[in-house]
Amino acid sequence: MPEEYQIYHNPRCSKSRQTLQILRDNGVEPTIIEYLKDTPTAKELKKILTKLHLKPKDILRTGEQIYKNQFKNMSFTDAEWIDIMVENPILIERPIVLKGNTGVIGRPPDNVIKLF
Q1: Which residues constitute the domain of residue 50?
Q2: What CATH number is associated with residue 20?
Q3: What pTM did the predictor assign?
């Protein structure tokens, strides 16, 4: 049985749409999780970070207005950053593509090719 792919997707984001298209062009129909509507729990986000081999700050969208207004130049623990991202999912970098016990951030979208 082939491993399933998941994409944490924002359909309004061009990079997310491009990444999804690359998956489909390569015969992959991933489970699509619109993370702004179906936000991962703190436990799920920790699992995602483990698969990505990244820390919470590594997937933080620092260009978002909410980050600039509320969190810029502030210091938090990894657990606190995870809670902040769960409360403000717009701060989670997108798209995130997972396959089995590994994953990549689709920035640039071609990063997803590493999972094939």
Answers
A1: 5-115
A2: 3.40.30.10
A3: 0.95
